[in-house]
Design goal:
single chain; alpha/beta; Rossmann fold; 7-stranded mixed sheet; 12 helices; 22 strands; binds zinc ion
């Protein structure tokens, strides 16, 4: 088996790995201005997509241009969400050189779409012109058997097992693992570390002994003393259950987004978040909660419902919520998602309405997660001047984005101008990626396998750490070819 790294190697974004010049794993884009695509020209026989985030699926329509018609293999939620993402990319960049596909290619995606559930092996033929080539890298003519396993990252996300009859490759994609059950949950010890990248800034709030033991669902839910301690917590994401499958593999291609970070306990993060939002609402302020459309928006809706935090939801995340609810078997608790949907008030999208809501005493979950677009562009300028208001960032803020700028400087370029923000800014680590312990725990099942590290800012360092632990590990660079 020969692997060529076209993107996502020693970086986060534009993931793309080409197997034997025939089978492509993911074909994402690196968001930015302009967006960047995987390197080189490819004409694969088929593409297998791990999940529906832009950095894994964003460039897939471009594979269907000209006369190329590779089959696209993915789970049902990934198929639906990929179409939504492609349409959004067209809206943002369509018709410009920054977008290598058009409506025609997006429409072709459904004609060449092959949907598969978890643990349902399927055959992918290597039928292209290269199939008969004597490459010497395994029995190519037999094609591949591919199997998806739940990766616990977002609805439909998959670990991808590729077996060519000779070698088994496990591509983790992005994944998340539930916390071990260790009894009582306490606030973590990293929550005050507001300056650390990707760490949960938190508010520093701690819970006194006077907290009520009663879950209060009455309209006076914003009472500062309303209890949070008896909210049933989840040892991971509320939206999807964590990854548990550990299929045998000779090679593991593992993501490493948080290889240097330990997440706080999820329940502690949720409680800090809920208390902070409720406090601001109690004080008469508005809280804007920027969130990624796929996964994070739904997770925050579930958290707001569980903690009875009043909220509006706006942006692409509302459409995504409807889509993921079509696939209840891919959610941890479909009933909870249904309740969260009725708890949140959906914004229909006129700016006049948004301005009224921004003046309201409420929380607003809205795209984009890094303040680079979406309805947040209306809400943030509306609430920014009043220090009683708050912006709660809920994900990693990439260097160069307005969200990152806001965290670091207290001002950000939003809606065309650099604006100072007096509203308080906080960051919460609602990550959907395994942390260092999660990654090492996962790799415990693969001590005999060769490990290739990708999808991270410190892939080489993590590979070296794994080598010290006895693994045969490396971190290929973009353009590298690895024969296994
Ligand atoms: Zn992802």
């Amino acid at each position: 088996m020969e692997l060529r790294f076209l993107g996502g190697a020693r970086e986060v974004g534009r993931s793309a790995i080409l197997i034997d010049e025939s089978l492509l794993l993911d074909y994402g884009l690196l968001t930015g201005t302009p967006p960047r695509y995987p390197v080189g020209k490819v004409g694969p026989d088929a593409v297998v997509v791990s999940h529906s985030h832009l950095d894994h699926v964003g460039a897939v329509p471009a594979l269907l241009s000209g006369t190329d018609r590779p089959d696209i293999h993915w789970t049902p939620p990934t198929a639906d969400l990929a179409r939504t993402l492609a349409r959004d990319t067209l809206k943002l960049h369509g018709g410009t050189p920054q977008c290598p596909f058009a409506e025609t290619e997006v429409a072709r995606m459904s004609q060449h779409s092959e949907r598969h559930g978890y643990r349902e092996p399927f055959e992918v033929c290597a039928s292209g012109t290269d199939a008969s080539r004597s490459s010497g890298h395994g029995p190519r003519d037999k094609g591949y058997e591919v199997t998806f396993f739940n990766a616990g990252h977002i609805p439909g996300s998959a670990h991808v097992l590729v077996d060519d009859g000779d070698t088994r490759l496990l591509y983790t994609g992005d994944f998340h693992i539930d916390e071990p059950d260790e009894g009582d949950v306490s606030d973590g010890d990293g929550g005050e570390d507001g300056g650390a990248e990707r760490a949960a800034g938190g508010t520093g709030h701690r819970y006194g002994d006077d907290r009520s033991r009663r879950r209060d669902r009455t309209p006076d839910y914003v009472r500062k003393t309303a209890g949070l301690g008896d909210i049933e917590s989840v040892r991971g994401q509320r939206l999807v259950a964590g990854s548990t499958a550990r299929p045998d593999a000779d090679i593991v291609l593992v993501e490493s987004t948080y290889s240097d970070l330990t997440h706080d306990r999820r329940a502690a993060i949720e409680r800090r978040f809920a208390e902070s939002v409720r406090t601001t609402i109690w004080e008469g302020g508005t809280v804007v909660i920027p969130a990624f459309a796929i996964g994070r928006t739904q997770e925050l809706m579930l958290v707001c419902d569980a903690y009875d935090v009043p909220c509006y939801v706006d942006g692409m995340g509302t459409e995504v919520t409807t889509q993921v609810r079509r696939y209840p078997e891919y959610l941890r608790d479909a009933d909870a998602m249904k309740r969260a949907k009725s708890h949140a008030r959906v914004v229909s999208g006129r700016d006049g309405q948004r301005k009224r809501i921004a003046a309201d005493n409420t929380a607003i979950i809205t795209t984009s997660g890094m303040l680079s677009g979406g309805p947040a562009m209306t809400y943030v300028p509306e609430i920014r001047a009043n220090p009683v208001n708050k912006i709660c960032l809920t994900g990693y803020q990439v260097e160069g984005t307005p969200g990152r700028e806001l965290v670091e400087t207290g001002r950000a370029e939003i809606a065309g101008g650099v604006i100072p923000v007096s509203a308080r800014v906080e960051q919460y680590d609602f990550s959907a990626h395994a942390d260092r312990e999660g990654l090492l725990g996962f790799l415990d099942s693969y001590t005999e396998s060769k490990v290739l590290v990708n999808h991270g800012d410190r892939c080489e360092v993590f590979a070296a750490e794994l080598s010290e632990r006895g693994y045969e590990a490396s971190a290929p660079a973009i353009g590298d070819t690895v024969v296994v």
